[in-house]
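Methods — Computational structure assignment.
A single polypeptide chain was analysed. Its primary sequence is given first, followed by the predicted tertiary structure written as structure tokens.
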Amino acid sequence: MSGRSEQHSIECWVIRPSQGSWLVLLLHVPAVDRAGFGFWQPITGSVEPGETSVQACLREVQEETGLVVALDALTFLEGGLIFELPESDITIRKDLFVARVDAGEMVVLSTEHDDFIWAPATTVAYRLHWPSNLATWSIVFGHLTQKADSQDI
């Protein structure tokens, strides 16, 4: 990793219970983004100087969706992910979280996204474009399927 700068970020998968399973909040990034096409993703963002990854996660969730997540509804998943952006000299260290919200919570999008969906957990992988999101979703989905009680993450 010599010569590469490192960026510390978070990725948060917001879930809500639905009929004994999970719905997962996905945000749509419009085509004007760096990719040149629109795509679905979880909540992502940088950890700001002086901020912990938990603080960054709670802030990013609120900024991007208007949702206020209680600390006890946030789960940090060990392992995270480290990956290199092929088009730059940046290595991203991503801390991974799952946040549970109630079914009645209202999503209010920031200008960063143009749409959202609550997707059944079994369909999320089909909607994702980026390999890093697929890798983290695999970790999250494994975590969710190990939980017998849909109120416990």
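Note: The beta strands are 5-18, 21-29, 39-41, 43-46, 74-84, 90-100, 115-120.
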